[in-house]
Amino acid sequence: MTTDRIGRGAIPALKETTVDGARLRYAEAGTGDPVVLLHGWPESHRAWQHQIGPLSSRRRVLAPDWLGWGESARDTALSCDYDSEVDRIARMFDALGVDRVDLACHDYGGFLGLGFVQRHPDRVRRLAILNSRAHRTFTPPYRLLFGAFTVGSRHRPTRRLLATPPVYLVHRIGLARYLRNGSFDREKLARYLDVLRTPGGRRWYTHFWAGYEVRIRPELGARLPEITCPTTIVWGTHDPAIPLRTAEELAARIPAAELIRVDADHFLMEERPDEVTAALLRWLDRPAPN
């Protein structure tokens, strides 16, 4: 069942389904061919708050909380390694009752989405990637930071440290630049970091990082020329964690890809919502094979 479109900035009541035995919550609006919006770290469907309404005027929009984030289940029995997460997208599509979609994905969602379109090209009609490490990795300071999270989560003494209450405050301070630039307000940032406010949430968080890898994945880069669906790269050019070079490589190596630069930081959908919405509406206008 689909729902009517909603107003700009509004978020419909969440629905739920089951993926890999765990509860997955998602926002849905509009009718027609499906568009799936995959968020990144540490966000939820709310990352797309300003885009869901306008896109729902043309499509059936589905914005899930990826398992472990937002209001979806945090099940430490589920593996968070890259291959498991990418394969989980296909099972999510099945649970949502969609076959072939327009797929827009940001940050961690783009990292997974790139692997998915390479494995399942028949299931992606159009692809949009927004400020994602994609086939590469982070700038050196962020590579060291996230690498410390992964290494720390794999060893018992440091894993216990990462699961203590102060980790919430550390992240709140670390993301303060996005309060200053207007990407988030305090309430929204608190929602994103709610996972770190309970013992169970922190246990899942260390589980996530234990399965994550910051290394470059050369196999993803090698297969970029195989992506034949209409692809748009939308990029905030002031991202301190992911260089513009990544976007330029994606645009150069994916056939017929276009690059749209936005005067924004990493969380561009929230910092520059009108520009990102316009870019995605233009993306949906790109002709795609039936």
Automatic annotation (TrEMBL):
<dbReference type="Pfam" id="PF00561">
    <property type="entry name" value="Abhydrolase_1"/>
</dbReference>
<dbReference type="InterPro" id="IPR050266">
    <property type="entry name" value="AB_hydrolase_sf"/>
</dbReference>
<dbReference type="InterPro" id="IPR000073">
    <property type="entry name" value="AB_hydrolase_1"/>
</dbReference>
<keyword id="KW-0378">Hydrolase</keyword>
<protein>
    <submittedName>
        <fullName>Alpha/beta hydrolase</fullName>
    </submittedName>
</protein>
<dbReference type="GO" id="GO:0016020">
    <property type="term" value="C:membrane"/>
</dbReference>
<dbReference type="GO" id="GO:0016787">
    <property type="term" value="F:hydrolase activity"/>
</dbReference>
<dbReference type="InterPro" id="IPR029058">
    <property type="entry name" value="AB_hydrolase_fold"/>
</dbReference>
<dbReference type="InterPro" id="IPR000639">
    <property type="entry name" value="Epox_hydrolase-like"/>
</dbReference>
<feature type="domain" description="AB hydrolase-1">
    <location>
        <begin position="34"/>
        <end position="273"/>
    </location>
</feature>
